[in-house]
Each structure stands twice: as C-alpha cells, then as structure tokens.
Amino acid sequence: MDNVRLSILQMHGEVTNQDISRYLGVLLRSVQRIVKLEHDYLGSAFESWPRTGGTPRKITDEAMMFLISVIERRSDIYLDKLRVELQTQMGIEVTLPTLSRNLRDAGLTLKMIMKVAKERDPRKRADYTMRISQYHPRTQVYIDESRFDRQNSIRKQAWAFEGERALKKVFFLRGKSYSVLPALSLLGILHVKIVKNAFNTELFNEFIYELLPFMNPYDPVTQPPNLVLIMDNCRIHKDPEMIEIVLACGICIEFLPPYLPD
C-alpha cells in the first residue's frame, strides 16, 4: 500500500485523479482520500512535495497515458508498432524490453484474444432481456443444434515428461458427422432428434412438430410450463409456415438477438 500511496502522490499535480485511478487500478475515492490526507497533513508544503526521484524515466506518466489510449483503441497492436507510435507521437525512443517492462508495471499483460462479434447489438440484447423477463423460467424451452464427429472427443492437452512432446495417434479424417437437436427446459429434455450431417429447414420443422405435444398454450395468469420456444435467429428456424402453425397452437416464439454471449 505504501508503494501505491507513493505513486499517487508522485502523479498528483501531473495528471488528474481520474487518470491516476485508471492507471494504477485504484478506486477514485481512495485516490482522493490519500491526496486529501496528505494535503491536510503537510498544508501548503504539499504543493512543493517532490514528485520524482532518481534517474528520470523515459516513459513519463503522460506517455503511459498515451500508450494506454492506443491499447484501448487497438488491443491487438504489436509491441514494435506500439514503440513506433510512442516515438512518432511523443518523441520518446525506448527499447522493446523497456517498453514491455513499463507496460507490465502498469498492469498490462498480453492475453489470449476473446473475439467479440461486431454484429452484437446491445440494444437488441436489452430488448430481448426485457421481453424474456415476462416469462417464468419454468415456461421457457430452449432449442439449439450441436454438430459432432469423432474428432470432438480429442482432448487439447495431454501429459508428458518435461522436454518431450505430448503425442497421441488420432484419426485425421473426421468420418461421419451427426447433429443433435434437443429441447431443454427446467423439467429436463422434452424431446431430442439426431440426424446425419446437418439440419435443414425440413428436418427442423419436423422436430418442432414432434415437440408441440409437449408444449402448452400461453396463459399470462397461470403461466404453465413449456409455453415459449426460444431459439437463435438461424435461417432454417424462420420458416413462415412453421411459425404460423406454432403461434396458432397458442405457443410463443422468441428469437435470440445476434451473437448473444449469455
């Protein structure tokens, strides 16, 4: 905590409290409290309190804020490209190890990318959340296909002695593939269909018609179980004739927004 306090006091006056909070990963109110306590203790002498000591750093607080802003815009930027940005925009030239060490000290690490679809729309997600909240969990039936072949059972990791490769003989040919389509509710699996290769519109409609006897018509008062079908917006799920038949049975249909992560 002493190191954090010292960093806060050194940066105070050079950057805003909000920037200090974001840079150090400290709550804003904690930054404000430390600054206030030091000011109350030292009074006017606080303003002349030494901000730095020892050899001046090449990557100043302002430069680090610049680096963070670049990373926020381009999180997958290469380290050498980041160094070029620092040199051209801030006039600061450093080695790659120095840049890497400063980024690490600031709490930044290189991680596996978690890809997020640009098609994801938070407004559509919020609209879906509002619609689905009107249904009790016992009324919801989820439908989603999964495809598998013999390579699905191959693990990505295996044990091996240090200095040796982890080897396992596997089939490189996938062989026959199957698709499984279950209807899941709080009561368990209501219905399931397995086909070779992938589902098409005809096979999906067939599954829905076989599922209908397990469903109940919508009643806003009693809300019996299994009254709303929830599925993604795949093309084969949107056959107009099938949708008309389901709705005529009094069963609701809700489509998930594109690329819903939940």
From TrEMBL:
GO MF, one term, reads:
nucleic acid binding
An example of a Pfam family matching this protein is: DDE_3
Domain (Tc1-like transposase DDE) ranges: 141-262
Q: Which InterPro entries match?
A: Homeodomain-like_sf (IPR009057), RNaseH_sf (IPR036397), Tc1-like_DDE_dom (IPR038717), Transpos_IS630-like (IPR047655)
PANTHER family from the UniProt entry: TRANSPOSASE (PTHR46564:SF1)
Q: What protein am I looking at? A: Related to Ant1 transposase-Aspergillus niger
What species does this protein belong to?
Answer: Serendipita indica (strain DSM 11827) (Root endophyte fungus)
